[in-house]
Amino acid sequence: MHVLLDGPAAAPRLTRLDEHGAPSAEPETVAPEGLAERMRAIEVAERPRWVWDDTALRYPAVVAAGVRLARCHDLRLSRAILRRSARTAGTSLAGSPPDGWDREPLPPAAPDAGEALFDLGADALGELPADALDEYARQRAAIAASTAPGALGALLAVESAGALIAVELRRAGLPWDRERHEAVLESMLGPRPAPGRRPRGLERILDELRAITGLRALNPDSPTVLVAQLRSIGVMVGSTNQWELQEIDHPAIAPLLEYKKRARLMTANGWNWLDAWVRGGRFRPDYVPGGVVTGRWATNGGGALQLPAQLRSAARADPGWRLVVADAAQLEPRILAALAGDRAMREAGRGRDLYRGMVDRGVVATREHAKLGMLGAMYGGTTGESARLLPQLARAFPRALALVEHAAREGEQGRVVSTLLGRSSPSPSLEWRALQARAAEPDAADAEVRRARTEARSWGRFTRNFVVQGTAAEWALAWMAAVRRGLRQLPEAAAAGRAPGPFGEQAHLVYFLHDEVIVHVPEEQAEDAALIVREGALEAGRLLFPGEPLDVPVTAAIVEDYGQAK
DNA sequence: TATCTTGGCGCC
DNA sequence: AGGGCGCCAAGATA
């Protein structure tokens, strides 16, 4: 049962669709004030998949009206996947000219839109594009005609579930302790300065730097100026990045690095960030599902996916609530092992730390080596320690290594690679192809041949990583969708005098970071939530690898603040 | 003045 | 000559 939800805010419509996506009854028009009740009733009685053009556009108003949908089909996100997937090559959708369904995600919401974004009547419930039903039928047809209908269907389901979750995450927000955050800033930077002024904590280090170097006008905030100034006193650097400065033996280096570290905290997550992104004790970032070519999420403002470790203690559960901080251990190499059907590698990680397992089997000497080597294999590292470890890994895990090597070769040839569920990499640009073609001519200049090879290898590193990162992203979406489903089945906790959450006293997701989720949960249900998070991982493993389910160990720490996890 | 690019660095 | 990002400030450009 699928239901199309559209119509003007003054008279929203619900249209029942049959299994082919065709309307099976007259649209039902609902009075706006009764819409939430009607939707809730349909959710409970009929388990529909709601179909609409863009979850990010429409769902906020629905959540604001007190309804959380179980499932949806997001036409925009699905189009993006189907359009590019190698599995749908030859379908009419893949061959059709670009149209309005190929558009980009919405522009970023204003940072302080916060609650206002969710006001019903803010035209979020407008008419769907007139051809929404046609598009839905096209997508169904493309899936049916594809070489992997089951996998693609699963992919669109988890992608769409992710879109629902992203909206709910913003609605809920990550509980954020402003005082705690300010205390960290104070300890690193001193009191908040007047706008445009350096805080005292930075001023003090700067004085020290000026004394050491004798440069009265030393300006560490400008990389180009700083390079010139350092060279003027004989510190012959080519840039001012950390790894270059670290190698230099000079008394100014340590305080300079300290200055940069603290300045970074201020510019990225300082008082301005707090003012812009934290309201009413919640950090509300703007997630962008499918915002990365590999299928990972991106963010638009707020930098939710780059919360520095030093500030995690500011993510703190409300009184009477807990955070369940869950992390999928060594997700990407496990995904690779499963993708490649590499028995030995799967065994090395079964039920324990995968890297430790590699050490125990004598593949490498230390856990650090195992990690470094696997990252190098998945990213295409060709130098240093990680490259030296590759032969050992290739001997122990030939199938896993062969899979990433093959993906790299495909990319170097300009071919497309795909994830397990069928998300495909973009084609290289026309410039890239032209360069390769020119370099293949018999009279090509050496420089051009070299440049073409460099570019080919670079694209190969991208496709090499794409299959692993993209399939890991699919696992993470499936995981999160399962966790969401499990949490919704938890009853609301009994009132215990604590402040209610955004969904009453029901546990809910509050954060997502590629292979980590955080659940905000009434304290007496924290153990239940931890169980749901682990069960969700198993469910994701079954969805992606039904033949031989992948078991990714998940750590689930029950804590009061994020800083206590790990 | 507004917009784009770059360097640097935070996360996975 | 290690994949994917976002964000900020400074600097460059229009």
In words, what does this structure look like?
Residues 88-112 are annotated as: Disordered. It comes from Arenivirga flava. Its EC number is 2.7.7.7. GO terms for molecular function: DNA binding; DNA-directed DNA polymerase activity; exonuclease activity. Helices cover 49% and strands 10% of the residues. The chain is of the alpha+beta class and 566 residues long. It has three domains: 1-173, no CATH class; 178-275, no CATH class; 333-470, DNA polymerase, domain 1. It has a five-stranded mixed β-sheet. Strands 13-14-11-15 form a four-stranded antiparallel β-sheet. Strand 1 and strand 2 (13-17) form a beta hairpin. The longest helix has 44 residues, at 446-489. The chain is globular, with a radius of gyration of 26 Å. The chain starts with a strand and ends in a 7-residue tail after the last strand. The chain binds a DNA duplex (12 and 14 nucleotides) through residues 221-225, 239-242, 260-261, 263-265, 267-269, 273, 291-294, 296-309, 331-332, 375-376, 378-384, 386-387, 454, 457-458, 461-462, 464-466, 468-469, 472, 513-516.
